[in-house]
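Feature request, filed as a ticket because there's no other form

It would be nice if the structure record came with a short human-readable summary line next to the tokens. Right now we just get the raw output. Example of a typical job, pasted below so the devs can see what we mean:
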Amino acid sequence: MVVKTFGGAVHGVDARTIMVEVSVGQGVRFFMSALPDNAIKESQHRIESALKSASFFMPRNKTVVNLAPADIRKEGSAYDLSLYSCMYT
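Raw output as currently delivered:
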């Protein structure tokens, strides 16, 4: 299953559209690609705790997250909502 949604990034004084694509399949790992910093890599834990507080569970399948375009460095926790909505739609 592939789900796409959009987010935004500030790049200098310009705003850029970021496409968030999530694919859930067979396997047991969580992968994130396209230049995420540590705050974005930690979003997996923030999303999992938000799901637990809402009485849902994080799927234990292979999850691949792509934040496109890959040439822009993604920083901060601003992508959590886009990731959350993409992963649990």
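Something like this underneath would help us a lot:
The radius of gyration is 13 Å.
The first strand starts at residue 2 and ends at 11.
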